[in-house]
Design brief:
Blueprint lengths: L10 H8 L7 E3 L4 E7 L5 E10 L5 E6 L8 E9 L9 E8 L8 E5 L4 E5 L10 E7 L7 E10 L5 E6 L9 E9 L10 E10 L6 E5 L4 E3 L1 E3 L1
Length: 227
């Protein structure tokens, strides 16, 4: 894993910042689940997703990276709840995400809640291609016979465009169809809500395939037949 880190404040500046009074409207809150998604863009992007239950329905939940003088082993990301105005004490699920590409430690991130911490190792071999995939070959008459490949992928925000195209040239195995997965991020501002995106590829073919492999580095999917 490669991560460029730029020097931040010196130690005196950091101590001055840490000694400043804490805000009374923002507090650490707990979380139930945390994970990191790697988007196979160029260069790759890493998205931290955190889910839990907040005690106040009108509380705003943010993921806030800690400040360091030098790159740590695990970069701390605090789960912060901010309450303003009249609080509505109703338990409400939350699901927030943050692009942590520029705030990765040498090994990963550490999610920090009110009473728990969780370290996540960031491994550059996981990504959106490892989603929910199906492939089937329809031989039902009257034809034409059609191969359909479907994937459901988790994106960090709405607005991502996901496409599958036939790889050119194909590989040495004619029974293994190679498809290129292309992910294009949104160009404008979007809300930070993890969104499921469906991508579909169809091809008319008489010979059929045994497997479909998603590139780059994706899974190899067994082709089922509908007859």
């Amino acid at each position: 894993m490669t991560n460029a880190f730029h020097e931040g404040p010196d130690e005196a500046q950091l101590r001055e910042f840490q000694d400043a009074p804490a805000a009374s409207t923002s507090k650490l809150i707990d979380f139930d689940d945390a994970s990191v998604i790697m988007l196979k863009t160029n260069p790759p992007q890493f998205i931290l997703r955190v889910k839990g239950v907040k005690q106040w329905s009108n509380m705003k939940v943010d993921l806030v990276p800690l400040v360091y003088v030098r790159q740590p082993e695990y970069w701390g990301i605090e789960v912060v709840g901010t309450l303003s105005g009249v609080g509505l004490p109703i338990e409400t699920p939350y699901d927030v995400s943050l692009n942590v590409t520029g705030t990765l430690g040498t090994r990963g991130v550490e999610v920090v809640g009110a009473t728990k911490r969780e370290r996540i190792d960031v491994i550059a071999g996981t990504g959106p291609a490892e989603g929910d995939w199906t492939a089937f070959f329809n031989r039902q008459p009257p034809g034409p016979f059609t191969l359909t490949v479907t994937g459901r992928l988790q994106m960090p925000t709405p607005g991502y465009k996901v496409t599958l195209t036939k790889t050119a040239p194909q590989g040495i195995n004619p029974r293994d169809l190679l498809l290129d997965l292309t992910i294009t991020p949104p160009s404008g501002p979007v809300i930070q809500v993890v969104t499921e995106v469906e991508v579909v590829y169809r091809e008319r073919t008489e010979s059929g395939y045994d497997t479909v492999t998603i590139l780059p580095g994706g899974p190899s999917i067994k082709v089922e037949e509908v007859s």
